[in-house]
Amino acid sequence: MTLTEAYRAALYCIDTDPPVVLRIGRPQPALRSLMPSGGEAGGLFLTACNPRSRRLRPAANARRLRALRRAVEGLGYAWRPGRGLDPLGLWPDEPSLWVPGLPLDTGLRLARRFGQNALVQCGPDTVARLVWTSRTTLPPGARIC
Question: Which of 96, 79, 116, 77 lies closest to 11 in space, CA to CA?
Fold first, then answer.
Protein backbone atom coordinates (compact mmCIF):
# COMPACT_ATOMS: atom_id res chain seq x y z
CA MET A 1 0.00 0.00 0.00
CA THR A 2 1.37 3.43 -0.93
CA LEU A 3 1.49 6.35 1.47
CA THR A 4 -1.37 8.01 -0.41
CA GLU A 5 -3.50 4.87 -0.20
CA ALA A 6 -2.79 4.56 3.51
CA TYR A 7 -3.79 8.17 4.20
CA ARG A 8 -6.94 7.83 2.09
CA ALA A 9 -7.95 4.56 3.78
CA ALA A 10 -7.36 5.86 7.31
CA LEU A 11 -10.23 6.70 9.61
CA TYR A 12 -10.00 10.09 11.29
CA CYS A 13 -11.98 9.74 14.51
CA ILE A 14 -13.06 12.69 16.67
CA ASP A 15 -13.54 11.50 20.24
CA THR A 16 -17.13 12.52 20.93
CA ASP A 17 -20.06 10.45 22.17
CA PRO A 18 -20.76 8.85 19.76
CA PRO A 19 -17.47 9.27 17.86
CA VAL A 20 -17.52 11.22 14.61
CA VAL A 21 -15.51 9.36 11.97
CA LEU A 22 -14.12 11.20 8.95
CA ARG A 23 -13.29 9.36 5.73
CA ILE A 24 -11.45 11.06 2.90
CA GLY A 25 -13.79 12.08 0.10
CA ARG A 26 -16.96 11.46 2.08
CA PRO A 27 -19.32 13.87 3.82
CA GLN A 28 -19.94 13.53 7.55
CA PRO A 29 -23.11 15.48 8.43
CA ALA A 30 -22.62 14.88 12.19
CA LEU A 31 -19.56 17.12 11.89
CA ARG A 32 -21.71 20.26 11.62
CA SER A 33 -22.40 20.17 15.35
CA LEU A 34 -18.63 20.37 15.97
CA MET A 35 -18.06 23.39 13.72
CA PRO A 36 -18.40 27.05 14.69
CA SER A 37 -21.12 29.19 13.13
CA GLY A 38 -23.14 26.18 12.05
CA GLY A 39 -20.30 24.81 9.94
CA GLU A 40 -19.43 27.83 7.83
CA ALA A 41 -15.81 27.91 8.99
CA GLY A 42 -15.09 24.18 8.75
CA GLY A 43 -12.18 22.68 10.63
CA LEU A 44 -8.96 20.72 10.46
CA PHE A 45 -7.85 17.33 11.77
CA LEU A 46 -4.13 17.22 12.50
CA THR A 47 -1.50 15.48 14.58
CA ALA A 48 2.09 15.97 15.67
CA CYS A 49 2.84 12.25 15.99
CA ASN A 50 5.19 10.14 13.88
CA PRO A 51 6.68 12.96 11.75
CA ARG A 52 7.21 12.14 8.07
CA SER A 53 5.59 8.75 8.78
CA ARG A 54 8.50 7.64 10.98
CA ARG A 55 7.29 5.80 14.06
CA LEU A 56 8.27 7.38 17.34
CA ARG A 57 7.95 5.95 20.82
CA PRO A 58 4.66 6.70 22.59
CA ALA A 59 6.33 9.07 25.08
CA ALA A 60 7.86 11.13 22.24
CA ASN A 61 4.51 11.30 20.45
CA ALA A 62 2.79 12.36 23.69
CA ARG A 63 5.27 15.25 24.11
CA ARG A 64 4.75 16.33 20.51
CA LEU A 65 0.96 16.24 20.88
CA ARG A 66 1.12 18.34 24.07
CA ALA A 67 3.21 20.89 22.16
CA LEU A 68 0.63 20.93 19.33
CA ARG A 69 -2.18 21.47 21.85
CA ARG A 70 -0.29 24.40 23.39
CA ALA A 71 0.32 25.88 19.93
CA VAL A 72 -3.37 25.62 18.98
CA GLU A 73 -4.46 27.09 22.32
CA GLY A 74 -1.88 29.86 21.95
CA LEU A 75 -3.55 30.83 18.68
CA GLY A 76 -6.87 31.09 20.51
CA TYR A 77 -8.55 27.96 19.14
CA ALA A 78 -10.37 25.23 21.01
CA TRP A 79 -9.76 21.60 20.05
CA ARG A 80 -11.24 18.17 20.57
CA PRO A 81 -9.19 15.00 20.93
CA GLY A 82 -9.14 12.53 18.09
CA ARG A 83 -7.26 9.58 16.65
CA GLY A 84 -6.07 8.59 13.22
CA LEU A 85 -6.83 4.89 12.76
CA ASP A 86 -5.44 2.37 10.30
CA PRO A 87 -8.37 0.06 9.44
CA LEU A 88 -5.88 -2.73 8.61
CA GLY A 89 -4.14 -2.37 11.97
CA LEU A 90 -0.67 -2.10 10.37
CA TRP A 91 0.05 1.37 11.80
CA PRO A 92 -0.48 2.42 15.42
CA ASP A 93 -3.32 4.77 16.32
CA GLU A 94 -2.18 8.38 16.16
CA PRO A 95 -3.54 10.76 18.79
CA SER A 96 -4.76 13.85 16.95
CA LEU A 97 -6.77 17.04 17.28
CA TRP A 98 -9.94 18.28 15.62
CA VAL A 99 -9.67 22.09 15.51
CA PRO A 100 -12.89 23.77 14.40
CA GLY A 101 -12.50 27.10 12.63
CA LEU A 102 -8.71 26.86 12.21
CA PRO A 103 -7.80 28.38 8.82
CA LEU A 104 -6.07 26.07 6.36
CA ASP A 105 -2.95 28.24 6.04
CA THR A 106 -2.49 28.22 9.83
CA GLY A 107 -3.06 24.46 9.96
CA LEU A 108 -0.51 23.90 7.21
CA ARG A 109 2.07 25.96 9.11
CA LEU A 110 1.44 23.85 12.22
CA ALA A 111 1.54 20.59 10.29
CA ARG A 112 4.85 21.58 8.67
CA ARG A 113 6.27 22.69 12.02
CA PHE A 114 5.52 19.24 13.42
CA GLY A 115 6.87 17.42 10.36
CA GLN A 116 3.57 16.12 9.03
CA ASN A 117 2.99 14.95 5.46
CA ALA A 118 -0.65 15.99 5.36
CA LEU A 119 -3.70 17.10 7.30
CA VAL A 120 -7.45 16.65 6.82
CA GLN A 121 -9.63 19.64 6.00
CA CYS A 122 -13.42 19.71 6.22
CA GLY A 123 -15.37 22.65 4.86
CA PRO A 124 -19.04 23.57 5.21
CA ASP A 125 -19.98 20.58 3.02
CA THR A 126 -18.42 18.30 5.71
CA VAL A 127 -16.43 16.38 3.08
CA ALA A 128 -13.01 15.31 4.42
CA ARG A 129 -10.16 16.32 2.10
CA LEU A 130 -6.53 15.28 2.36
CA VAL A 131 -4.19 18.27 2.02
CA TRP A 132 -0.48 17.59 1.51
CA THR A 133 1.95 19.91 3.28
CA SER A 134 4.87 19.93 0.85
CA ARG A 135 5.89 19.10 -2.67
CA THR A 136 8.47 16.63 -1.34
CA THR A 137 5.70 14.49 0.18
CA LEU A 138 3.33 15.01 -2.68
CA PRO A 139 2.28 11.85 -4.52
CA PRO A 140 1.93 11.98 -8.32
CA GLY A 141 -1.27 13.70 -9.38
CA ALA A 142 -1.93 15.33 -5.98
CA ARG A 143 -1.97 19.06 -5.23
CA ILE A 144 -0.89 21.22 -2.33
CA CYS A 145 -2.44 24.49 -1.22
Answer: 96
DSSP string, 63-129: HHHHHHHHHHHHTT---EEEEEE-TTSSS--EEEEEEET--HHHHHHHHHHTT-SEEEEE-TT-BEE
pTM value is: 0.90
Cα–Cα distance, 141 to 19 (Å, whole number): 32
pLDDT tens digits for range 21-75:
999 999 999 888 887 765 567 899 999 999 999 999 999 999 999 999 999 999 9
